[in-house]
Design goal:
Layout lengths: L9 E5 L21 E5 L2 E7 L4 E5 L2 E5 L4 E3 L7 E9 L4 E15 L28 H4 L10 E9 L2 E8 L2 E4 L4 E16 L10 H10 L7 H4 L27 E5 L1 H4 L7 H10 L4 E5 H7 L11 H16 L3 E5 L12
Parallel strand pairs: 13-14, 13-15
Antiparallel strand pairs: 1-15, 2-3, 3-12, 4-5, 6-7, 7-10, 8-12, 9-10, 11-12
Length: about 350
């Protein structure tokens, strides 16, 4: 080691996607250097450069930082630098496989004892929690960890844009030997395949500006501009049915609750909330769960049906038909069956 000195449970959901809601985001510093990106048919290659690591010691533990990277703090695992990246999947495509290759690697001198990640805990809530212990499987390794230097965390949809969230680990640690290996360059290869279907992109100027800052391949956004996915015709969904109660409506903000709560008119009711939105120029309205459950299919891909799927399908329809940006689910578990996940 180096020797250094109400009964209502209200959930507000921003509908960023036709099929998924993004619940997490990765902040990216303004002006950060983007990778070199090339694409050949169904293969996209991104090359990242990293600065050399800095090591500092606190007590008998070492901590490693790399300029521009965040701290990976998985409970029980060594604390190492990580680079979260967001990669836009081209329109009409899906990710088939992601691989990574470390380039220009070198090993740091000396030996190191890295700290391990800990679980977050709240003080004064219940009995004291047992401190997080190092993961014995990882800390007994004589080889370098993480074995794979990338992790495809998730692919999420933001208003029709399919975005892959990937963690890159240019630094590896051998816990038993105390050695650190570093790559100053990494090559991430994303293999693509045609997607069966995809939702139409519904961007705003604000969203395009935000995505251009966050994405490592913003030029791929152009593939969505030429997307010619067919639009729905009148009567294709309950919202576009000329004989339906919501034909011609175009809500930016919707409240989903039952008929009883929808019918209240006191100053703290959902109707008062919608009236407040309308007074500020935001098209808002209440859609009852009674109507949704009677008009939307609840069939799940895995078989069977449930009310969560009916509400989910309504929210997707509201996004695709009206361009709805926000939904508020109002009620306890008997009104809004959990979880309604998009």
């Amino acid at each position: 080691m180096r020797n250094k000195g109400l009964f209502l449970q209200i959930a507000i959901i921003a509908i960023f996607a036709a099929s998924n809601l993004i619940g997490t985001s990765t902040s990216v510093a303004a002006g950060r250097k983007r990778p070199h990106v090339t694409r050949n048919n169904n293969v996209m290659v991104l090359e990242y450069d990293f600065e050399e690591p800095q090591v500092f010691t606190e007590g008998d533990l070492d901590f490693v930082t790399i300029n521009g990277l965040e701290r990976y703090n998985k409970a029980g695992a060594p604390v190492i630098p990580v680079k979260p990246v967001q990669i836009l999947v081209p329109a009409g495509m899906k990710i088939e496989k992601v691989t990574s290759k470390a380039i220009d690697t070198f090993q740091l001198p000396d030996t190191y004892r890295l700290a391990h990640g800990t679980k977050p805990f709240r003080k004064d809530v219940g009995p004291p929690e047992t401190p997080t212990q190092p993961d014995p499987e990882i800390f007994s390794m004589t080889t370098f960890w993480p074995v794979r230097q990338h992790n495809l965390v998730t692919v999420q949809t933001n208003r029709g844009y399919n975005i892959a969230h990937v963690n890159l680990f240019p630094l590896q640690y051998s816990p038993k030997a105390g050695k650190i290996r570093m790559a100053t360059k990494m090559r991430l290869t994303v293999r693509l395949a045609p997607a069966d279907s995809h939702h139409r992109a519904k961007p705003t100027k604000h969203l395009k500006k935000k995505l251009k800052r966050k994405l490592d391949n913003p030029d791929t956004m152009e593939s969505y501009d030429t997307d010619s996915a067919p639009t729905k015709g009148a009567g294709d969904t309950p919202l576009t049915d000329p004989g339906g109660p919501y034909y011609g409506a175009n809500y930016d903000y919707i409240v989903v609750t039952n008929s009883s709560l929808a019918g209240l008119s006191d100053p703290y009711s959902f109707q008062a909330l919608c009236d407040s939105k309308i007074s500020r120029g935001i098209a808002a309205g209440i859609i009852t769960t009674d109507w949704i459950l009677a008009n939307y299919d609840g069939t799940k891909p895995s078989g069977g049906s449930d009310n969560q799927t009916r509400i989910r399908n309504f929210l997707i329809d509201a996004y695709e038909t009206w361009g709805t940006e926000y939904a508020l689910l109002g009620g306890n578990k008997d009104i809004i069956p959990p979880p309604v996940v998009l």
